[in-house]
Write a structure and sequence with these properties.
homodimer; Rossmann fold; seven-stranded parallel β-sheet; 7 strands
Amino acid sequence: MMAVRTIEVRERVLAKNDELAAQVRARLAAARVPAINLMSSPGAGKTTLLERTLTDLAADLSLAVVTGDVQTHNDADRLARHTDRLVQAVVTNGACHLDARQILTALDAIDLASTDLVFIENVGNLVCPASWDLGENTRVVLFSITEGEDKPVKYPKMFQQADTVVLTKLDLLPHVPFRLDQAMACLRRVNPYLDVISTSALTPDGVRPWYDFVRAEARPKSPR
Amino acid sequence: MMAVRTIEVRERVLAKNDELAAQVRARLAAARVPAINLMSSPGAGKTTLLERTLTDLAADLSLAVVTGDVQTHNDADRLARHTDRLVQAVVTNGACHLDARQILTALDAIDLASTDLVFIENVGNLVCPASWDLGENTRVVLFSITEGEDKPVKYPKMFQQADTVVLTKLDLLPHVPFRLDQAMACLRRVNPYLDVISTSALTPDGVRPWYDFVRAEARPKSPR
């Protein structure tokens, strides 16, 4: 009985979230602003990648950021050093994922008319965020090569629902027992349609393919 | 209304879990078998550490393993190669943590009379498993130095409720921008009572302090 009750409540909560995600999506579409939902394990490098991106693409693109954290403002504080714009910090108070209501509230504080792209940095977690639509256009999963080749198979929902995987910390390849071909096979097995981008945020040219991807996502707005 | 309802149901589910965890604890105590709940981010090295432990301590200790995974038996298959005993595999069907009912069921299949210690390998997740008592004696969190120094501050509940932290992948220290003193400060800030064990599961002597810890946990049984 208890189990059935819990699942019913969970489904109602997720259905409500989907409604709110549709509102996010409509608001972003009306403003012609795409949003990328960045997800990964804790410590895979979401904040480091965003720090570099905000700095290096500042001249080309007007980027807004919503960043979620369980208890702290650490990530928001780190990111705020790299942009002139206000970073929207969401503290989930222990919850293991962002939800669409939090994104709707954050959008209220973002001037979409002067924004080319919204980054949403989710809570570090390979399980729960996969179930929560945030109204994003694109789901990106960061996958650090220090985590082992089999993570896509072990956390399949996250990788099935992703559009793009960003492999991170490629500079560590000589020092870890990680086989890139095996990892690619695991990714393809779970989701053959995934785009895969290799990066190393600590080397000068290590994020260039990611920047190409971000520029392509932030299509120029057509005139109103 | 919806939020309040959800929280009430969640609290009832957690209260039921606590009851079942008390049953696990009583059963283990009656058999004088301690249990260690191993938690971490995905890819921090739980399975690798257990693989070595099962092999290297086989002559000294009779170790039982319950391992939880979201969708696969990958970890159970890996561990089964290193022990003569049956590895208890729990597939959570998408759930982000193990619960006490799963441990009670797994214990049914373990001959506790011939067991010195039970390892419980939780789902890779730094958020949700912290809320679920499994009836363990000791909570151990693995913290890979590739994840960055601030993880204890960002996922405080996990580290507040831990007894021991095992730093993993110390062999990568020359190759990552990780400051051990900063990480220790973050750990102490969140939980000043934590024991910290440094390991590198890929070097011959890199897990010796962990073995000392495991041997101390698996106290010899007094005669009946």
